[in-house]
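TA notes, week 10

Several of you asked for a full example with nothing omitted. So below is the full record: structure tokens for the whole chain, then the designed sequence directly under it. When grading your own attempts, check the secondary structure regions first.
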């Protein structure tokens, strides 16, 4: 969940104390105790589904967010904390066995990292999407703006991305507020539309953009879907169907004490319908009127496909393909970043070819509560399947890169 500015600064200061310096994944981190081997990396003591294990690939990666593997090279977006001009793009060679090398620096809170054409990489930074060539002699000289005019303020300014098979980009534009509260924190006027939903482009929406030779101004693009508070976890099926999991609001009990902040609202998982409005901030869960908008008619809004646990904070999603991790072929892997009891874990969700759930999420990596002398609380962000079928997991609060693999 996104913190206030003061809490962001405090969290980042603590992070700097924990993640100063650089190391390879060959030695255990100060925060993670390792024992034994997990497919060539030091094994971390976490609960996994049978036949799987988690290995420690790299530590001291700053505020690690997006991750992409292209062949033997792994790229990580270090957001640099909640401060501008401190973000970096790192490269780890030899499938993570090499030391991190800084390719780009001075970026504004990079988050989304996805492959572009011809071996390039797209990076979502505040207000725009850029592309660069990671193999260039000087990668910084290859940087080009691909999308401009994106919002860069408020509670959820980070840009999450996913690419479709035809090269289009889906871009999450998170809400500027928690539930459209006013600047002083008071409740919105229920008789008026939420101002940020009328912005250009609207907050709490997803855009679909085909990158071209010239940068696309997001202010000229019609939203692909709206009423989505902050869909940081995105995936595209081979059919082209977009899947998204959202971070729902906080402190619903402050507006209605009869509602449980621990249990409500749920985090929506959606098979995103083009042109649909999913109801934020007026509605929550399955077409229920938000307490700030008690008389709002939610019947015309799009209902969520599935309700995930409250405050799970899904930040990463991956459609797993292959047999390397037994039983996961065709399933969705979703990283829960949340600090509350239902968060800090990775789950698997069986779905059909159009993303319709075939059951309930099952724990894949769990037992990630803080354990002194063993491991920190899990903070999974991005997921990426490598060519060998293993899955990379970035962690922002812990500055680490982990790898889910078969236990041999």
């Amino acid at each position: 969940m996104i913190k206030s500015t003061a809490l962001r600064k405090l969290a980042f200061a603590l992070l700097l104390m924990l993640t100063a310096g650089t190391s390879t994944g060959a030695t255990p981190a100060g925060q993670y105790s390792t024992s034994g081997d997990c497919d060539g990396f030091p094994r971390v003591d976490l609960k996994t589904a049978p036949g799987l294990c988690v290995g420690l690939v790299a530590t001291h990666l700053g505020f690690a967010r997006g991750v992409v593997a292209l062949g033997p090279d792994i790229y990580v977006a270090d957001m640099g904390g909640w401060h501008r001009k401190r973000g970096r793009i790192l490269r780890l060679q030899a499938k993570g066995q090499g030391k991190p090398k800084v390719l780009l620096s001075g970026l504004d809170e990079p988050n989304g990292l996805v492959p572009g054409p011809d071996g390039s990489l797209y990076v979502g930074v505040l207000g725009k999407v850029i592309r660069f060539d990671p193999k260039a002699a000087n990668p910084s000289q290859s940087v080009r703006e691909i999308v401009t005019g994106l919002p860069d303020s408020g509670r959820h300014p980070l840009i999450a991305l996913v690419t479709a098979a035809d090269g289009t980009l889906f871009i999450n534009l998170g809400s500027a507020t928690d539930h459209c509260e006013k600047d002083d924190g008071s409740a919105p006027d229920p008789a008026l539309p939420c101002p940020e939903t009328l912005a250009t482009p609207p907050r709490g929406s997803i855009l679909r953009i085909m990158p071209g030779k010239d940068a696309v101004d997001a202010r000229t693009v019609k939203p692909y879907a709206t009423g989505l508070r902050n869909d940081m976890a995105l995936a595209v099926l081979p059919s082209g169907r977009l899947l998204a999991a959202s971070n729902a609001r906080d402190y619903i009990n402050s507006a209605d004490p009869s509602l449980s902040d621990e249990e409500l609202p749920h985090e929506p998982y959606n098979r995103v319908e083009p042109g649909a409005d999913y109801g934020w901030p007026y509605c929550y869960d399955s077409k229920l009127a938000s307490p700030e908008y008690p008389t709002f008619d939610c019947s015309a809004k799009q209902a969520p496909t599935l309700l995930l646990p409250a405050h799970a904070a899904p930040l990463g999603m991956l459609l797993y393909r292959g047999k390397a991790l037994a039983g996961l072929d065709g399933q969705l892997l979703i990283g829960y970043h949340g600090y509350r009891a239902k968060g800090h874990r990775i789950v698997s969700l069986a779905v059909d070819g159009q993303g319709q759930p075939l059951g309930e999420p099952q724990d894949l990596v769990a037992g990630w509560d803080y354990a002194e002398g063993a491991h920190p609380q899990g903070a999974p962000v991005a997921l990426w399947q490598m060519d060998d079928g293993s899955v990379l997991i970035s962690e922002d609060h812990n500055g680490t890169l982990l790898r889910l693999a078969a236990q041999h």
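The chain is about 5% helix and 35% strand. Use that as a sanity check on your answer.
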